Amino acid sequence: MYQRRDGPGSHYNVGLLPAGQSDRVDVVLVSPRNPLNTGAAARAMANFGFTRLTVVAPYGPHWREARSAVGAPQLLEEARECNTLAEAIADTTLVIGTGTLQSRRPKQPVVPLPELAPRVLQELAHDGRVALVFGSEKHGLTRDDLAHCRLLVEIPTHAEQPSMNLGQAVAVCLYVLATAAILPASEPAKPTRANNTAAGPSTTSGNLDRLGILIEETMRAAGYSPRTMQAANRHDLRLTLRRLNLNPADTRRLFGLFRRIHWRLTRGDASSAR
pLDDT tens for residues 113-126? Predict the structure, then answer.
């Protein structure tokens, strides 16, 4: 699973993920404000062998030119830029949000930092794709951002200084992943899905969003979701779908079920349903 590199100084690199796994881990920065922090994050990625960077709605227009990306200018040049978090994580099967939880009550499972690597490696072992999502320097991930995450990882920090620099936060998380092979915390995580994890990865975040839109349309057609509650119901539905840990086959079944129900409610004759 890991790539050992022999030769002088090889003990520094025994835990680095091989390219076949590291290229299925996306680092996603949501609305970064300072290009220097974006560059520092890119440098940390290069340090630990990760190459897939996505920047969502950056504040600064010149973030690709950050001088802090020492040794990683090509990584910045090839990074994706997206307008929304949903677009950035559409093809991923496990979305993990990061940040401090001192001032919020999470609605997802919280993973201690030492358990991050086992959870990520479990998903990669089932051919999944993982997104590590970091919020802006000013306020971190928003309530809406967190609704896209299946898990949250908390970086332990001192109570008097809970906030960590964006580049440092990326470096800490990637260090934990890159060195998983030589740390005691690298024990395989126990499967957490209700369905059989051996069948393959979870469904993608994009498919969950499309399923959520269909369910929301069905709820409106049934008169379940009044206008004043639609935003709250959408948020709760997004969280619920991620807690279910659906695989692709289950997602297809739910698509078929809700399409049929929606058709009956909007165009079909409900009295003819058997």
Answer: 989 999 999 999 89
